[in-house]
Each structure stands twice: as C-alpha cells, then as structure tokens.
Design a protein that fits this description.
The protein has about 650 residues and is of the alpha+beta class. The chain is about 45% helix and about 20% strand. It is built from 18 helices and 22 strands. A nine-stranded antiparallel beta sheet has the order 6-8-9-10-20-17-16-13-14, with no helix packed on it. Strands 4, 5, 11, 12, 15, 18 and 19 form a seven-stranded antiparallel beta sheet that branches. A four-stranded mixed beta sheet has the order 3-2-1-7, with no helix packed on it.
C-alpha cells in the first residue's frame, strides 16, 4: 500500500510536469514558422505517448528527467539546440560528466541465438523483451512465447552519483555495435556504452550470450568515473516489473502455477502465494529470483546474493489475457573491481536446462513436490518418460508403458494386499461369531478376542494397509508430475490436443453461475473414463473384502467411495488430461490384476489349510501385543472404578 501511494504521488507529479511542457510548447509555437509548429506538434504527440506509458507503469525514475529539459531548450536550429542542451547548466548540475548521455533517441537492439531473441533498449541499455525461438508457441496461436507482456514491463537499475544523488539507468542513452546481432560463438559479448562523448569516462553494460543457451550474462562497469559513480557506498538497486502473458489452455489452471520463486541463502527454495496476492521482504541474502510463468521463467541470479531487505511481490490479474503481475526490488551486492555482475535465465522450466545453470536449488522452480515426492519425480518418473520419448512417438502409448512399468514394480506390494484380503475373507465366519458373542458386551473383551484370533492364525489385519501406504508416494508423485512437466506441453492423444491441459469432448461458451466456477465450461472425456474406472475398481475391491458388521457412528464405506468418485468428476475436469489418462490406465491395469489374481493365483482352500496349521502352533505374544493388552487391561480397570 505504501508503494502504491508513492507511485500515485509520482504519477501526479509526472502529469503536472507534462502539462507544463505542453504549455511551454504551445506558447513557443506562436513565434515559429509553420514547419516549426509541425515539429512542436510531433513533440507533443511523443509526450502524450510517454504519459500513457507512465500512467500504466509504476515509474521508478526520479522526477527530474532529460525530456523536461529538452522541452524548454532554445530552438534556433536542430543542431544548435542539441549542442546547447547537451551542455546546459541544468544537465551538468544534475549529471556531471554524464550530462551528454542524458540526451538522445531511444532505439532497440535485437540479439538472437538458437533459443531466443533478447531486445535491449538504448534508453537505459537494459532488457525490454525476450521472445523464445525454440519452437514453443502460445496455445492456439502461431506466436512464439514471450516471457512477459508488452502492456506492462519495466526494468531499472538505480545507482548513486557522488554529490548529486540517485539516478536511474533510464536517464541515459547508450550506443551499441549494431541494431541486429546474431550470436554465433561461445561467450559472445555485446557491449553498450553510455553516450558521454568520452570513451575514457563512461559506463559499460556487457551482455554475454551462448549460441544455443537460455542464459544471459550481465556486467555493469564504470570506466574512468570512480570519482563520480558510486557502486559501493550506497546499494545499487534493481527494480523489475513484468506482467505475465497467458500462454496456456485454461487461464485458471495456468494462474495457479504462476508465482515469484526465490531462494534465500542456506534455505530451501521458497515462493510467494500461487492463489492470491502476496508480498515478502527478505530477511537474508537471496541467491536468485524467478518470475515463474507456469512452464516458462524469467530469472535473475547473483553469485554473491542480493542483500537483505529485497522486496518481492505478486498480484493476480483479473484480465483473461494475463496471469499475474510480478515485481522485485533487489539490492545488488557490492561491486567487485568496479563492476557488478548478474546472470539471467530466460527459458522453459525444463529440468536439464535449469540444472545447466549450476545454481543451488534452481531446478526446483519446477515444483515436482516436496521430499520423497520430488525425488521420485526427478529420478524415476521423469527419466522413464524421456526414455520412452526417445523412440516412441505416441504419447498415449508412452503413458501406457510408464504405467505398466510402475505397476510391475509395485506388483509385489499389490500381491501382498490381495493375499491379506484373502486371509481376512477366510477368517470372516469366525470374526462374525466373535461379534455375535460379544454383542452389547464389553468392547475391550471383544477386541482382545479378535486380536487373539489373529495371533493364533498368524494373520496380520494391518498387512493390507501397509501396501496401500507404500503406493501413496507414487500416486501423489504422478499427481504433481503431470502439471509440472513441460515435456507433455502441446503433445496430443486422441481428442486431447494438449496433455498438459484439460481435454474437452463438449464445451459451451455461456457462464453458468457456480457451475462454471467449480466445474468449468467443458466436459473432460478422460476424466469421465477415469471416474468410471475408479467406480468399477472400488466396487470390485469392496466386493473382494470381507463385509464387516457396520459399527454405530461409522460411515458406510461404499457410500464414501461413491461420493469420492463424484467429487473427482469436478476436481479433475480442469486438471491436465495426461493425468486423468494415467489414472484411467492405472485403474484398468489394477482391475486386470485383481481379476487375474483372484481367478488364477489365490487358492482360498490352501490359505484356510495354512491358517489351520498355524493355529496348531502356539504363538508367543509379541512385545507390542503384550503392551497393547496391558494398556487395554488398565483401561478396563479405570472404567470399572469409574462405574463404582
């Protein structure tokens, strides 16, 4: 809020200044020829355009600007006016040896390699736009990915002039070797020099590019200005604002995966809220900051770390053309040998590309999940997909093969689960008898009798739970993998045109209250198949389990499973279609396994014989069972005392 108030005050000052310029230009035009009046009108249009841009962006430059001085300069002739302005007392008083660099015309420099095109602006010498040339397109459009929208963007570097105060790089104009540059060699440098008129007293911005990489090196160094430019006493600040452009299918899902990611020194990777506006001021040095735009990121990295007190912000956009507004105000580390060094990354959130940067936890811009979930995705699931992708073109077949591999690895766990269920079915009549015997009596005694039965027969009632728990990391890992992995972006299968987004077999344009919010304006075919297979699998699974007596107050499991299946229709309708396809295939494989095991591999007569054999062998109580029974005995005694 405080930042917003500052911006509003500055906008007011800017508008007043522009209005004063307009008045000066109109008054001056009465004394000029027709040609001069046309020049004044052109200058007025230029100023109006500047006012629109400044009204849409949070300005960060000080209110004293070169255009204001230019507007009030003598106009005897174009050449005399420029010379007079460059050497005017106002410019010299404000910028000293850099006064001449405060005049000029803004131009663009386009630098291309095999991966992207970076656009620099000669007014300020900083990056104004990045467009990817690696084949990634906006969904449904034949347009390359742009890492932020043209409608709102700003990158600024603020530094201190000794004895004169803070200035921003946008106050000055730079010269470049060429307007169009193709990167053809490793570590190719593009050097922009401030137009001071003296190459021995200038500021240089050095950008370093690779022919086939997404990294941009950046250095800002002073040449012969040690007595004027201060890169050490007062922190150099970088402010970066960017409005994310919607690139994917489904703006709501895309927004939910966009935010500012960062890493504070010696801490885990962190990020601002992905669901609402958020802001944070860092309490320690920050290694890197990334504006994550779902499958793409624009990031800045400092080897020495941005200083404590850097501010990060994200604001959710209400416009369907944009995702979020990103903001970062970073305090740069102290200059080394008169220069500041940073690294940028402009590219896809692809694991191998992020790892190439060799920056601690930088690859965790991809949110594969926490702890063991992330490990499974990075080192098991992802390599499987890339292995099959290297020689198979059908993405439906790839998902099928990945599912079969996972199910094969988990088959011993699945077998254990089915065997446990079979043993419980064999014991069902005896458990029913215990329930009838102790009906309406002491629940503790009934529980002790049931546990004694399990001990005598060698059946572990919890054996079926353990396999399910062991499978949970895989199930949840897949839930995190599909929305995060860029390899599925733009890949089609059957009616799904993008496995990284929802599929649709029917859609409508009308906004239906409530329904559009919780369900969407489409019907996902793969979600319907997944839910139908889930219903069938749960029905078969519940039928394979022994039907225990319904305990008072306990929910009906069949009803709970049916409700869960209906809820999945709503929840998965906007999830990536590849995820629903995976769960559908996994369910069908599980149904096949269940049918085959029950029909051909489980012999309940043999299990019953084994149980009877176990019953003849006396079993000593385990220490756990002894402690459990002792706890039950003590509880029973307390209850008896309480009833007296």
């Amino acid at each position: 809020m405080r930042s917003l108030e500052k911006i509003m005050r500055f906008d007011k000052n800017t508008i007043i200044g522009l209005l004063l310029m307009v008045v000066l230009l109109i008054g001056f035009s009465w004394y000029q020829s027709g040609v001069q009046r046309e020049q004044a009108a052109a200058e007025q249009a230029k100023l109006d355009s500047l006012a629109k841009v400044q009204a849409s962006q949070p300005p960060i430059a000080p209110p004293v600007t070169a255009p204001a001085i230019l507007a009030s300069a003598p106009q005897d002739s174009a050449a005399q006016a420029m010379d007079s302005l460059a050497l005017s007392n106002e410019l010299v008083a404000r910028y000293g040896a850099l006064a001449k660099a405060a005049t000029g015309d803004a131009d663009q420099i386009h630098i291309r390699n095999q991966k992207f095109e970076v656009t620099l602006n000669t007014k300020g010498g900083l990056i104004s736009q990045v467009e990817l040339l690696d084949g990634n397109k906006r969904y449904g459009k034949d347009e390359n990915i742009r890492l932020w929208a043209d409608s709102l963007k700003a990158m600024s570097v603020r530094f201190n002039l000794l004895g004169k105060g803070p200035v921003v790089m946008e106050d000055f104009y730079f010269d470049a070797p060429s307007k169009e540059i193709n990167v053809q060699q490793a570590n190719q440098e593009v050097v922009l020099r401030m137009r001071t008129g003296n190459t021995n007293e200038t500021i240089e911005l050095v950008y370093t590019f690779q022919p086939d990489g997404y990294e941009v090196g950046f250095k800002m160094r002073q040449v012969g200005l040690a007595g004027l430019v201060d890169f050490n006493t007062t922190p150099v600040e970088m402010e970066w604002i960017a409005l994310g452009q919607a690139n994917e299918k489904g703006i709501s899902a895309e927004r939910s995966r966009c935010s500012v990611y960062f890493r504070e020194k010696e801490e885990d990777r962190d990020y601002l809220s992905e669901s609402s506006d958020d802001e944070e001021t860092t309490e320690s040095t920050v290694n890197w900051v990334a504006f994550k735009q779902d499958y793409f990121s624009a990031a800045v990295i400092s080897a020495d770390g941005f200083q404590t007190g850097s501010n990060l912000k994200v604001v959710v956009s209400n416009d369907s053309a944009y995702t979020k507004l990103y903001g970062a105000k970073l305090k740069l580390p102290a200059a080394q040998n008169g220069q500041l060094a940073l690294r940028y990354y402009f590219g896809p959130n692809e694991y191998s590309e992020l790892k190439k940067m060799d920056v601690e936890e930088f690859d965790r811009i991809i949110d594969y999940g926490w702890s063991i979930i992330g490990v499974v995705n990075r080192y098991v699931i992802r390599p499987l997909f890339y292995f099959f992708q290297s020689f198979i073109g059908s993405w439906g077949l790839i998902i099928l093969l990945v599912t079969l591999v996972i199910k094969t690895v988990l088959f011993p766990v699945t077998w254990k689960n089915f065997m446990s269920s079979a043993k419980m079915r064999v014991l069902k009549p005896e458990i029913d008898e215990i329930n009838r015997k102790y009906e309406g009596k002491d629940a503790v005694e009934k529980q002790q009798a049931t546990m004694a039965l399990y001990r005598q027969t060698g059946v572990n009632p919890f054996a079926g739970c353990i396999p399910v728990l062991l499978q949970m990391p895989i199930l949840y890992a897949m839930f995190r993998f599909f929305p995060a992995e860029i390899i599925l972006r733009g890949k089609s299968f059957l009616w799904a045109d993008d496995l990284a987004a929802y599929d649709s077999i029917f859609s409508w344009s009308q906004q239906i209250p409530v329904l559009s919010w919780i369900y969407g304006n489409h019907i996902s075919g793969f979600t319907i198949l997944m839910c139908a297979s889930t219903f069938l699998y749960s029905k078969m699974s519940m039928g394979a389990q022994p039907q225990m007596a319904q305990q008072p107050g306990m929910p009906n499991m069949t009803v709970m499973m049916n409700i869960f299946t209906v809820m999945m229709l709503f929840f998965f309708n906007n999830q990536p279609s590849g995820l629903a396809l995976y769960y559908f295939i996994a369910n069908m494989v599980s149904i096949g396994q269940m049918w085959a095991i029950r029909k051909y591999f489980i012999n309940e007569d043999a299990i019953r014989a084994k149980i009877e054999e176990n019953r003849k062998k006396p079993k000593s109580k385990s220490s756990f069972m002894q402690r459990l029974e002792e706890a039950q005995r003590q509880q029973k005694q307390k209850l008896a005392k309480g009833n007296k």
